[in-house]
Automatic annotation (TrEMBL):
Keywords on record: Glycosidase, Hydrolase, Signal
One GO term (biological process): carbohydrate metabolic process
Secretion signal span: 1-21
Domain Beta-xylosidase C-terminal Concanavalin A-like: 325-511
Domain of life: Bacteria
Origin species: Lacihabitans soyangensis
The name this protein goes by in its record: Glycoside hydrolase
A Pfam family that the UniProt record links to this protein: Glyco_hydro_43
Keyword check for Isomerase: no
Family recorded in the similarity comment: Belongs to the glycosyl hydrolase 43 family.
Residues of the site described as Important for catalytic activity, responsible for pKa modulation of the active site Glu and correct orientation of both the proton donor and substrate: D142
Keyword Signal included in the entry's annotation: yes
GO terms assigned for molecular function: hydrolase activity, hydrolyzing O-glycosyl compounds
Length: 517
């Protein structure tokens, strides 16, 4: 009777549920997740690569519904690639897979970046920051930091051949007098198959005195696969096996709940929307974590129901700010480092102002493009644009950013304003349709359909914000490795002839199917 009452009270408290949550737990681009629990709160770090600010930190009370809390850095590094200057960019690079830990009352998040050539470690006593940075060369690939019971701190990294080093206690670099050692000579061998992507994405855990190392591997002709190695000592010997193989859901680790349940957090490559997080239940058998339900990804989970990603992961913005509110909420990220002299929310109250400061040749080379994630299965973004201060050759509007991008915008050309829809074909931007307009205020909308990997978008314009006209043609949104990121709603303004033009955005509004119900 007492057990039944306990379950009843847990249900009332919303701590457990039966078949309420569904996979994916976040239908948006939140890849390379690393997760911890501190008390009754879960924390997660993820990858946003070339975006600024970067290395997002999120929190949750139920493992399903997440909220952005901070970014570990405002600008990863100052160089031409991160600044989109001198013809350089860092699309698909920037900072990659991170590791989040909590040790001695302090949060620690680490990442690595080919763009900087370094490993970056950020620490804070508060999940909201401010974060203090320490960085050192080289950039240790897909590493996992582990605070062992002997007081030593280790870093495990690599691909195929996995290596281990000991870090200084202050996390400022490799411990002097210690050597890099090989942890597992060929971690991919546990897959027992020809390999396309060698074992990487290390995440290390300890449970009941044993060490467990999670990796992803991709057998040739197969799917993304979870590998698990275990050992009695961190130095080995390690024994490994396939830990999970279903739907390509892989790469992540272990998390437990306050009531003693276990899950594995993983993600799936899911086309144009990006790489999306999943949870699978875990049971312990014979000293191994056994993932999934009969080896499969369950579509429902005994966790509280998924809520809309609005407003905690993405959100609308009317660009009005009260005293004390952040200039830009955490849902926004710039494409690369912005030039902060060329945007404002105060020059014209209630508007985001984007100013041109150089000549650009394309949407992807333009600086100060402001972005948010698209979300699945279907989502819509819309804007209102005042083009009265745009100059000859300026193009401003609403885009969907990836290598094969598309946008709807207003083009000011030889004293004539036109609404244009542009799509990428064969690596080149092609103007699909052009409509002359005489108004300075226009409205644009992009509708995205990621349902069943349709990965299609349509663009619209309006002259009154109420009646919409489809323009151009549907945009096919493939996930491409050069950008390595899901499509993003993007507000932009770039010059092709002269600088000093201004585009004023009155609002950005996002909708999804969940929030419309």
């Amino acid at each position: 009777m007492r057990k039944i009452l306990n379950i009843y009270f847990l249900l009332l408290a919303g701590q457990i549920g039966f078949g309420q949550a569904h996979n994916p737990i976040v239908h948006a681009d939140v890849p390379d997740l690393s997760m911890i629990r501190v008390g009754d709160t879960y924390y997660m770090s993820s990858t946003t690569m070339h975006m600024s600010p970067g290395l997002p930190i999120m929190s949750s009370k139920d493992l399903v519904n997440w909220k952005l809390e901070s970014y570990c850095y405002d600008r990863l590094v100052e160089n031409d690639a991160m600044n989109l200057t001198n013809g350089q960019n860092t699309y698909g690079r920037g900072s990659w897979a991170s590791c989040i830990r909590y040790h001695n009352g302090e949060f620690m998040v680490s990442t690595f970046a080919a763009t900087s050539g370094k490993t970056h470690i950020y620490t804070s006593k508060n999940i909201k920051g401010p974060w203090k940075e320490k960085s050192f060369a080289p950039a240790y690939h897909d590493h996992s930091i582990f605070f062992d019971d002997d007081g030593k701190t280790y870093l495990i990294y690599g691909a195929g051949k996995l290596k281990i080093i000991e870090l200084k206690s202050d996390l400022s670099g490799k411990m002097e007098g210690t050597e890099e050692k090989t942890l597992i000579e060929n971690a991919s061998a546990a897959a027992n198959a020809p390999i396309m992507l060698q074992a990487e994405g290390s995440q290390l855990f300890k449970h009941n005195g044993k060490y467990y190392l999670f990796n992803i591997v991709w057998p040739r002709g197969g799917m993304r696969t979870v590998l698990i190695h275990r050992a009695d000592k961190i130095s080995g010997p390690w024994e490994g096996k396939i830990g999970f193989q279903d739907l390509g859901v892989a790469q992540g680790g272990l998390i437990d709940t306050p009531d003693g349940r276990w899950f594995s957090y993983l993600f799936r490559d899911n086309g144009g929307v990006g790489r999306i997080p999943y949870l699978v239940p875990v049971e312990w058998k014979d000293g191994w974590p056994v993932l999934g339900e009969n080896g499969k990804v369950p579509m429902s989970l005994n966790l509280p129901a998924n809520k809309s990603l609005i407003p905690n992961i993405v959100n609308s913005d009317e660009f009005t700010r009260k005293k004390g509110e952040p200039t830009l909420p955490l849902v926004w990220q710039w494409n690369h480092n912005p030039d902060n002299s060329l945007w404002s929310l105060t020059e014209r109250k209630g508007f985001l102002r984007l100013k041109t400061g150089r000549i650009d040749t394309s949407f992807v080379s333009a600086r100060n493009t402001l972005t948010q994630r698209t979300i699945g299965p279907e989502s819509t973004g819309s804007i209102a644009l005042d083009a009265s201060k745009m100059k000859d050759g300026d193009i401003a509007g609403l885009g969907l950013l990836q290598k094969n991008y598309g946008f709807v915008g207003l083009k000011n050309e030889n004293g004539t304003k036109s609404i244009i829809m542009v799509s990428t074909k064969g690596g080149k931007a092609v103007e699909i349709e052009k409509v002359s307009v005489s108004r300075n205020t226009v409205y644009f909308k992009a509708e995205c359909n990621f349902k069943d990997r349709a990965d299609m978008a349509n663009f619209f314009y309006s002259l009154d914000g109420k009646s919409w006209v489809k323009i151009g043609e549907p945009l096919k949104m493939p996930y491409t490795l050069p950008h390595f990121m899901g499509y993003r709603f993007s507000l932009f303004n770039f010059a092709t002839k002269e600088i000093g033009g201004i585009a004023d955005f009155d609002y950005f509004r996002i909708e999804d199917k969940i929030s419309e119900k």
